[in-house]
Amino acid sequence: MNNIQTTVVSSRVRLARNLAGYPFPGALKSAEQGKKIVNEVFSAAARLRAFRLYSMNVISENVARSLCDDHLISTDLAANKQCGAALIDEEEGDPDEPHGKFSIMINEEDHLREQYIVDGLNLTFAYRKISEIDDELSKELRFAFDAQLGYLTACPTNLGTGMRASAMLFLPGLTRTKKMNSLIRQISCFGHTVRGVYGEGSVAEGYLYQISNEVTLGVDESYILSEVQRAVLSIVNLEARSRKQLRGDDYVGIKDECCRAYGILSNCASVSYAEFIKLVSDVKLGVALGFLETERFAMLDELAAAARPANISLLADGPLSSSERDIYRAEKCREALKAVHRIDS
Questions:
Q1: At a CB cut-off of 8 Å and minimum separation 6, what does 262 contact?
Q2: Is 245:21 a contact under the CB 8 Å cutoff?
Q3: 3-state SS class at 50
Q4: Residue range 279-296: average pLDDT?
Q5: pTM, whole model, 2 decimals?
Q6: CB atoms < 10 A from the CB of 159, how many?
Q7: CB-based contacts of 3: which residues, under 8 Å, 6+ apart?
Q8: How far apart are CA 196 and CA 169, in angstroms?
Q9: Rounded CA gap, 117 and 11, in Å?
Q10: Contacting residues for 302 by C-beta, under 8 A, at least 6 apart
Q11: How far apart are CA 284 and CA 312, in angstroms?
C-alpha cells in the first residue's frame, strides 16, 4: 500500500457561480427571490442528472448534520432555512472510475457552489466531472461574468475562475512530530492554505487536514490543479518521512498504541464518537506503519464517516439516544475491523 493511498483521503473541486440579474445571496430582497433561484437552478440541473433536492427548511436537523459531516453542504447553508437548498447525486459506480458525488449548494455565500468529491488523489478527474456539469448549466443559466475579473463572486477571494481545488489528507506523522505549524507557514507562501476537516476555522479531527488553493484570480484552472497537485505530493513525501521518524523513535510504543486501538475497536461493546475517532485514527496509522494490514485502506475512512452521530442515526433508520448510538457504533466497528489484521513481526 503506497504513501498516497494512506495519506490522501479524497479530492474536491468546487466552482462558485452567481446568476446575473440577482443580488448576491446575502443581499437578496426576499425569501421568495431566493426560492426563485432554487427553482431556476433545479430546473436546469434536473435535465442533466437525477439530482435530489434538499431544502434546508424541510429536511431534519439529523439529515442536515449528516450532509455537513459528508462535506456535501456547509453549516452556513444548513442554517439558511429561508431559501437554502442543495442538489446531490451520487455516481452509480463505474468500476473503471473512482467513486464520487456531485453537490450543488444553492444560496450559500454564492447562488451556486458546484462541487464534485471523489476518493483518493483525483483532482483532474474531479475537475472534469464538475466542469461538464458547469458547462451544461451555463447553457441554461446566465452566470455573472466580467471580461476582466472573470466569474463574479460574493467574496473577492473567489473572483476569476471561482475555483477551489482541495484534497483531504491524513497527516498523523506531521502532527505528532509537531511539524504542522511549520508546514502551514511554508505552504501559505505558495498561495495555498491548510484547514481543518470541516474547512475554515475548524479543527483537524482525526489528523485530517484540507489543502487548497487561495488564488483564483489571474490564473487558469489547469494552473490551480497542477499547483495543488504538486503541493499535495510534496506533503505526502513529508508525511512519509515523519511516519518513518515516528516508527524509529519509539517502535514498541507506537506499535503498542496502534495495536491497542485495534484491539479495543475490534472488541468493544460501546464506544463514544470522541473515543472512536482517536482509536480509528490510530488504527489507520497502524496500517500506514505496517503494524496492521487491510486490503482496502479507504474502508477505514468509510467507517469513520459512517460512525459520526448523525450518520449512525440514519443507518439505524430511527432516532437513537447517545448510549444507543455508542452501542450501534461499536457493532459497526467490530464488523468493519474483521477486514483488518495484525502483522506479527
A1: 282, 283, 286, 292, 337, 340, 342
A2: no
A3: coil
A4: 96
A5: 0.92
A6: 19
A7: 236, 237, 239, 240
A8: 10
A9: 6
A10: none
A11: 20
